[in-house]
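Subject: Sanity check before I submit

Could someone independently write out the structure tokens for this chain? I want to compare against mine line by line before I put it in a report. The sequence has 218 residues.
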Amino acid sequence: MMKRQQPHSSLQKSQEAGYTIIESLVAMIVVSVLMIAIAPVMAFSVATRVQAKRIEMATQAATTYIEALRSEALKQGTQGFPAQYTTDNKLEETPAPGNINALYCIDKDGDQTCTAGSNQDLVVQGYYYNNLPATTNPAKTGYSLIVRVYRANSFASGVGALTTQNALQAQQGITTAGLGNLRAPLVEMRTEIGASDRQGAYNNLCTRTNINGATGCE
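---
Independent answer below. Compare away.
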């Protein structure tokens, strides 16, 4: 009797083992489907955090640039000093940069320069307006300033012409697939730089805002 039961017992064990393998395969398939479903969400979440951190660093870079101008650590005639523009209320319409070498560099990868293609370096562009001749030292008179911060890899070949916030008609945020628009500035801000020559600062403000004419407040 015992010998007749052995084949039946072996067959039952074999069926149970086969059933366990099928269960494992089904479980693996279910897990794979779930992973495929949530993978884009996880990737978007990571990219969003990276872009948010990048915008935070760009804001710090813009602040550093503005403080360098206010303290006159960055002087007229040096690389990165803002270019003059002729219309105050159209500073937002100033063109995007085309040459990385003429701009202010925030070196984040430690190679002592900003190179097109670097995913760490930040590049700052500035324009100023003061309604005075170009020969006038803007640091002495004060001026309106607009600042844009781009990623260095925005200047890499194949990216295309850069754009501005005004051209996009929207603030650059942490959207666009979580990575932002590579052709747009990470940060764009506008501020006023005070005159180092306090005696003429008030008249210069009147000149720039055209109060009582264009020659001061007298």
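---
OP: Matches mine. For the report I'm noting this point. Residues 3 and 41 are 59 Å apart (CA to CA).
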